[in-house]
Write a structure and sequence with these properties.
With 180 residues, the protein is α+β, with helices and mostly antiparallel strands. It contains eight helices and six strands. The strands form two sheets. It has a three-stranded antiparallel β-sheet with strand order 1-2-3. A hairpin with a 6-residue loop joins strand 1 and strand 2.
């Protein structure tokens, strides 16, 4: 594919160097925002040590590293919660319960009463592919409600969800230094 390449330079955050943007646009076929490629490069030693290009922005390296570490911690905790024995047991119990219903209408009514379904009946019928699939796709945030509906203690699971929320709230923000 043939492309036109443009080079745009602008001052870097400290003003002693520049940020170079290479824009590649196809010369054949339809042009859309998906076919235009942008590559950014910080051409200042001081700014390159302190900042990093993230998408179309320049952000602090330390902010981005802290954000990514906290996000990884949250993802790990979420995955552990989602795969915990309690979550597996609750999903198994729900799948067994849904399998006993002879019609999708009965499953829809049960899930609506349990507070796990807010879809209309016609939407539910289109999307419901079976008891096991529905139970497997149940979001961990819905599990305490299901535990209470099934008459189980949801306290320990809710404590884990609160810890997960605390991680999310403590995730540092990434300060935008420059929009490219």
């Amino acid at each position: 594919m043939l492309t036109d390449t443009d080079l745009v330079s602008r001052p870097c955050p400290c003003g002693n160097g520049e940020v170079e943007t290479t824009i590649s646009t196809p010369t054949q076929g339809p042009i859309s925002s998906y076919s235009i490629r942008r590559a950014h490069r910080i051409k200042c030693a001081d700014c390159d040590r302190q900042y990093v290009v993230d998408g179309n922005t320049i952000v602090s390296r330390t902010d981005l590293a802290a954000y990514r570490a906290a996000n990884e911690q949250w993802s790990t905790a979420f995955r552990e919660l989602n795969e915990s024995s309690t979550a597996v047991e609750v999903r198994t119990a729900l799948a067994a319960m849904l399998a006993t219903f002879r019609t999708k209408n009965a499953a829809h009514d049960y899930l609506t009463k349990a507070g796990l379904n807010d879809a209309t009946y016609s939407s539910f019928i289109r999307e419901y592919t079976g008891a096991n699939e529905y139970a497997a796709g149940l979001h961990p945030l819905d599990l305490p409600q299901l535990l209470r509906f099934l008459g189980h203690d949801s306290g320990p699971f809710e404590e884990k969800l609160q810890a997960l929320e605390a991680i999310r709230r403590s995730t540092p923000s990434v300060q935008l230094v420059m929009q490219l």
